[in-house]
Amino acid sequence: MISSTVSSTSAIPANLAELALTTCARYPGRPAFSRRVLDGWRTLTYGQWEERSTRLAAWLLARGVGRGDRIAILSYNNPEWVTVDLAALMVGAVVVPMYPSLTGPQHNYILHHAKIKVLFVVDRAHLEPIRQIEGALDGITVVGMLAPGDWPRPSREKLRESKLETLPTGWPEGLPQLGPIIAESQPSREAEEELCSRIKATRSTDLATICYTSGTCSVTPATPTSMLPAGKGVLLTHGNLVTNVLYVREVAELTREDALLSVLPLAHMFERTCGYYAAVSAGAAVSYAASPAQFVDDIGSVAPTVLLCVPMLFERIYQRAFAATDKPWFRKVTGLATAVVNVFVGDAARAGQFVEDRKAWLLGKLLRRKLGGRLRFAVSGGAALSADLARFFHEKAGILILEGYGLTETSPVLTCNRPGRWRFGSVGMPITDAQVRIAEDGEVLGRGPMVMQGYLDDPEETAKALDPEGFFHTGDLGRFDEDGFLRITGRKKAMFKLSIGKFVNPEPIENRMVHELVSQAMVCGSDRPFAAVLIFPNLPALQSLAASLGVTGDDAALCNDQRIREPYKKIVDDACGHLPDYERIKRFCLVPAALGIDSGELTPTLKVKRAVVGERFKERIDSMYDGS
Asked: May I ask the CATH architecture of the domain 311-373+375-492?
């Protein structure tokens, strides 16, 4: 096995391939990666992962893939994704992950902007929108990753984009497929020697990945519709990632006994660094959730010891547990219990509080059960986590959620809370070797070995992001508290100016609106006389609320009913009652809709795309200012 030749005895491996293969040599029989199948979970051991990756790497060598060539992965999370990744790293190629949620023209942009040589694509639903663009795949070798029987069901949006009523049941004739490639590839001694040579030759300063940010770039009238910009290409070296990975492993105290459940896209650096490379460096086991929608169900099956999530998924876990305590029969039981306790204590308020405390205890117990019962702690990143939600998980369920901070451009971890040293509402302290300071305008700046080399073919944007001192300008606003914990207060670009000349920072208000009745909230008001908010209700909770109040009708009717609006008004008032008058929400609109990734309103990490939502729901926003 190659790992016996290239595994590292150094505390700091020179590159990612060396890091991974060192673990393969150390724990060949331990479970590495699993994915959900109909009858349970299908698992690869570390030894099997190395063997499959080596076979694929030999095939890439035979196809002329050289050091520095770019290999794209367009896939959901699965063991095939990480197999392609390791094979590419072994040949010295640069990995370019692509979000499955992007459109064909956006994928086409990345393929050409990054000069992709080989594209690995998960299924026909994601291949077709690219194939239908003339010239999109010219000069690119395309490989199908999953056998047709393993294809996930395509979303309506992806099916519509493919311009087919139903997708073909197989890959195009003659298209290479990953399974047969691995089964048939038999690496020669010369190929293995070449792979060993390339791995040993890969330095920490060599480019490891080009990771496109999940945001969007500007589009001009000259931009062809067949090629839409899909974010900036962030250049990260092996050294950038290895130093970040080793820090995460140390702080999280990851070991081979740990089990992680992966749900965030591997195209996002938070999941890739913390949920993949850091886990591999420790010999931990990683299971891939079938989808974000099935994530909560998969937690109980995997029983992870460490969980990485974005805030919205923690909110979803809480809402699922809350729904179990919000059934009509349960409300009757709590009402009866309150009456019984009142008989003994003679104080209705004390009786009600006693029952509410018992209800919170039960909710905490349900949360622990839903999370599998083995969780050491959870990590939140990608967006701000509600301090109240983190406090509830900790106090009622005994689950510590540690919030961290960083960006794709910082590999991504720049600061984090640690077990034994944390503050709710903060994103922790700077990691080892990271220098973090606050600029005069409040912007968070970061410098250190985790900071990117720049943006691909974009010296102008690189110069804006990296100042002459080497500090990366994050675009986020923040401050350090008296104990040295960083607190993010908002995004520079998210702030807007009211027509009265005052500035409003929407994110702290939105973060305080986390509630079982709310799925998403977006504060608006640029060039308007006051701030308002679009609220997208948690529809099951909305319907449960309506039933408890005796209100009937469809979701649209419920959103317009004053009895339903009253609880939402309290949520809004509680979120901004402490603010100056000009920052307070004056009006709100309940929108009976669910925002989604495939429909373009959410980023792959479940953050609201303000421009898209603002345009899509412009009439509702305008209605809040009628007569103002």
From this structure: 3-Layer(aba) Sandwich (3.40)
